[in-house]
Design the sequence.
C-alpha cells in the first residue's frame, strides 16, 4: 500500500530512467526522479513518528504535579514549532491501542534538529514516566511514480509533505517482499496501475508516503489522513484484493490516531 501514492509515472512519463539491465536482472529504478528545472527545488524532509506510553505510576501523582508535567512537555512542543522549519502534530491513541497513549509526528529538515528536539522532550519531568514502544524514522523523496490527483504533497513531487487538518491519522510501517524489487519497472507499473486506481476511488483519504531505506528497520512509513475512518477501512479492504498486495511482506503494527492540540493530548493521559 505504500506505493498507492508511488505509482503513476508509467502513465505520465515521469518515471526515473532505467539503465540497461545486466545479467537478466532489472536495473535499479529507485533513485529520486529527475528535478524539473522549471520548478523550484524541493528540499527533502526528515519525518518521525514517536509513540509514547505513560507509566501507571504517573497517573497516581497529585493533580498539581501532573499539571506541571504536562505544561512543561507542551511548552517544548510549542517552542519547536517553527513555521517552515520544524512542525510537530500531536495525536491521542488512548482507546485505539493498548501499548501506546499518544503520538508526536514531527517534520523537519535535519536529523540533528530532530535529535535535539527529542532530547529536550526527554529532559522534561513527564518523560521520566514515559516509554517509547514504537518510533519510526523516514524521509521524503521525489517519487518515481505520480498520482493523477494533486494535493499539497503530490503537488511538490513528495519531496515535501504537508499534514492536512484531518481529524484521524492511520499510521503504519510497511515492507515489500524482495521479489518485488526484482521485477522490471514495467511490471511494477502494471501492478501498481490497479493499486492506484483503487486508491483514487477514496478521495477523502490523503496518503503521505515516506521512505526509510537504510535509516530504520521498515522500508516505508505510510500515514493516511481522513475525517472518515469508514473510508479508510473500505480502502484497505479493497487494496487487499489487488494483485500488487501479493508483494506486501508486512504492514503492521497499525496505529489509529486522533488529532488534537498538545494540551488536550496530554490531558487525555489521565
Sequence:
Amino acid at each position: 500500500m505504500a506505493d498507492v501514492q508511488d505509482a503513476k509515472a508509467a502513465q505520465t512519463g515521469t518515471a526515473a530512467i532505467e539503465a540497461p539491465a545486466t545479467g537478466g536482472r532489472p536495473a535499479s529504478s529507485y533513485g529520486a526522479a529527475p528535478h524539473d528545472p522549471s520548478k523550484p527545488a524541493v528540499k527533502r524532509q526528515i519525518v518521525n513518528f514517536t509513540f509514547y506510553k505513560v507509566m501507571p505510576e504517573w497517573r497516581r501523582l497529585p493533580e498539581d504535579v501532573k499539571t506541571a508535567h504536562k505544561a512543561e512537555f507542551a511548552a517544548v512542543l510549542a517552542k519547536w514549532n517553527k513555521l517552515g522549519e520544524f512542525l510537530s502534530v500531536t495525536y491521542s491513541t488512548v482507546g485505539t491501542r493498548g501499548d501506546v497513549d499518544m503520538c508526536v509526528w514531527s517534520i523537519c529538515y535535519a536529523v540533528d534538529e530532530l535529535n535535539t528536539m527529542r532530547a529536550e522532550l526527554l529532559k522534561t519531568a513527564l518523560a521520566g514516566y514515559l516509554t517509547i514502544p514504537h518510533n519510526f524514522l523516514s524521509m521524503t523523496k521525489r517519487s518515481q511514480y505520480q498520482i493523477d490527483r494533486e494535493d499539497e504533497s503530490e503537488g511538490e513531487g513528495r519531496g515535501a509533505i504537508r499534514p492536512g487538518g484531518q481529524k484521524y491519522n492511520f499510521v503504519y510501517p510497511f515492507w515489500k517482499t524482495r521479489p518485488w524489487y526484482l521485477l522490471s519497472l514495467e511490471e511494477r507499473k502494471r501492478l501498481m496501475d490497479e493499486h492506484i486506481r483503487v486508491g483514487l476511488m477514496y478521495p477523502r483519504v490523503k496518503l503521505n508516503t515516506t521512505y526509510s531505506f537504510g535509516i530504520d528497520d521498515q522500508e516505508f512509513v505510510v500515514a493516511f489522513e481522513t475525517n472518515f475512518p469508514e473510508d479508510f477501512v473500505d480502502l484497505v479492504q479493497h487494496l487487499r484484493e489487488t494483485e500488487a498486495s501479493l508483494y506486501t511482506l508486512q504492514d503492521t503494527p497499525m496505529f489509529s490516531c486522533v488529532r488534537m492540540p498538545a494540551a488536550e493530548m496530554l490531558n487525555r493521559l489521565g
